[in-house]
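Quick one: structure for this chain?
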Amino acid sequence: MSKFIRSDFYPKNFKLFSDNIENLLGNLIIKNNINKKFEILEISSLEEIRDHSILFVNNSEFKIDHLKEDLIIFTDKPDFFDNNEKMQIVLINDYNKCFNLLINHLYLHEDSINYFDDFTFKDNSYISKFSFVDDSTKIGKNCFIGRGVKIGKNTIIKNNVIIKNTLIGDNVIIGDNSTIGSSGFGFDLKNMGTKNLYPHVGIVYISNNVCIGSNCTFDRGKIDCTYIGENSMIDNLVHLAHNVHIGSNACIAAQSGFAGSVVVGDNLICGGQSAFNGHIKIGNNVTVAGKSGVTKNIGDNSIVAGFPATDINKWKRSTILNRKKNA
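Got it. Here's what it folds into:
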């Protein structure tokens, strides 16, 4: 997991102490086992648990191996609450509402009405005074570089590019009209509308020597990172949703889309117009034929094609048989 300082991107909104949680959440709490007063400074994810933080768990099978100092867990699973009652844990009746209330209380983000930034206007681009761009990097015309962004050495940002909530390594190229670090597509189907958007307080992390084409959109992580590994080559019109992890040396052709929380190993070769279902894992050294629909986990050293994507030899046999039937 790539480390970052959340407050570089998301200023604190209000302080929150453990003994204030009951007042903030009110009747959303069913049972409350908070027994220690401390200030909450961070939010944890299931992948990375931080000190002085809150953690949301909606998976009854989740195991906490190493408790961090001063952690409060929120869950809507009664069995998980009962099995972990010795911890500081809160049973809630609406997981999404509690998440939204607590994160919006803690942080200002760009979907908050009070979020702020301050810019210098340089060479027809707006660059935040709270960002860092190495002197060796070239920024094109009409670009926007937002709060907390850090861009490494010898990087080229072409024209009309928006970069927010992102850390970028060295020798990166980002094509015209791309947007990096935008809000993820997170909401509750039972409570839709802008007031119920899930706040996204993670970032995008782009490693060294990555090439990104024109008109791409990469959403930032919900809590942690959307990640692109080193030496990866990403074509035009590619979308990465929140929490997607792309390993090193990926080659992704145009118009491909990755739904939220897809994890891809190293050396992916992906044909154009391919689609990946959310929350699946793709192994190392995988090739995905163009126009494939990947709906389930794919193991290492696989070549897949079709919809749903399957072993390419099986797909070829199936295609031949279907053509014979329809002849």
